[in-house]
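Intended use. Records such as the Pentacotripeptide-repeat region of PRORP domain-containing protein entry shown here are meant for training and evaluating sequence-to-structure methods. They are not intended to support clinical decisions.
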Amino acid sequence: MLSRIRSPLNSLLKNHKRQYATQSTTDIILSLLDHCYSSIHVYQAHGFMFARGLDQDNLLLSRFIGACSNTGLLDHAISVFTHKTCKNVYLYNTLIKALSSNSRMKDAVFVYNKARVMELKPDSYTIQFLLKGVIRLRLGKGVHCQAISYGLHLDVYVGVELVQMYTSCGRVCDARKVFDEMLVRDLVIWNAMVSGYCKVGEVERARALFEVMPERNLVSWTALIAGYAQANKPSEAVAVFSRMQINGVEPDEVTMLAALSACAQLGALELGEWIHGYINKHSLHKTLSLYNALIDMYAKSGNIKKAIEVFESMKDRCVITWTTIIAGLALHGFGKEALDMFSRMENARVKPNDVTLIAVLSACSHNGLVEEAHWFFNNLFPKYGIEPRIEHYGCMIDLLGRAGCLLDALELLNRMPFEPNAAIWGSVLAASRLYGNVNLGQLAVQHLVKLEPHNSGNFSLLSNIYASAGNWKDSGLTRKVMRDAGVKKISGSSCIELNSRVHEFISGNGSHPQSEKTFEVLCLLNRHMEVTNIYI
């Protein structure tokens, strides 16, 4: 075993013996350090350096610190660094970078302060490496102040790190100040600012900045597409994706991931299929995330058969893969098939997470599998080690309501360790309407009005419950309360996918450019149905 571990170093030394006459010892050690894949390799390389007094060479020691960082031996690197005399800023930068990359910011700041005590002036790399590991705003501001004091804040690479640091801390306004103060802006910092806006959900600001960029690349387009998808604006994401293609920009795996997410939200099967075909045709790297996105897109776009086909074609699957296909089967009403898939997951020794069990409970809910749901719910922690979340309770309450067990649903709601949210009370209200329980419907609406005061659907459901029970007076009174409170009914809408474009039509809204022609065709169809006695 030991001989196999040493073999890379031994073989390298043998290969270099013949080259000693022409190749320097420094080059040999640099090559050795590049081939350190374990702690034993690092210790051997260090011994080789120490015996020849080369552990005091700044270049070699810098590469040695990198090898220690890659093999988890940072404490050993710090020990060797401490005994080094005559350190330069390059060597300090290397250790700061290694510590920041391994989330050891306190140690990185300590090393930085030591460099200042030694009167070594930091350069732009020092500030960049410090900022890369910052996750707390206070520390980031401190580094920013240091950059200003040394006149490094206007360096474009430091600017990129500052923008990313502030946006990761949720301070996009401060990021924009940094961006605006930059005297020179390259494409990287433009992309960082656009991505920063998208990260905090200010996608329209990102779009405004995107439109005035002096140049764009694939990263620019992908950031905006992903931003719209994450902000639940899939139509805009698809529109930007189409515009990117018109501009002749070739998408990569990350772009496709964002576009597939938008397709899944819209149910845009035609575009999703085109993306799948493009991936195959251009031999894009099929990452696990890309496979998962394809499964999700097909399931949410109505083609569960194709989702299963993609799933079965995969060689490697993770918990997200299994969860996505289980949720897809549940969405299409295949409850028993979803539970069978969960059994396959357990047999494959993939540990489910809390989201997996939400998908399982959802499958039970949509198919009235009350006993199975009770078993999974009661075994969340005992068998799977999962603390029940409000979503698990929500699935159970929804299932009990659908099954007509309204009192059981209310009892579970009252004893859960969470404050019921709008989704849970909405499930109770829907069940009350389904089974004509006026009192429970009133209770649900009382809570929903507090949680969602402007949601017209809650008032409409209660009015319908009264109407179903023959209580027309209270039904009309509910509508009046809704009007007096200024709650407006949300207009209905429908989407049609045509030539890989998704068109949305909103009731009473004629803003779509093809609205007039669409209405003309609908009128013709209506007259045709009247003449031929076809009724819907």
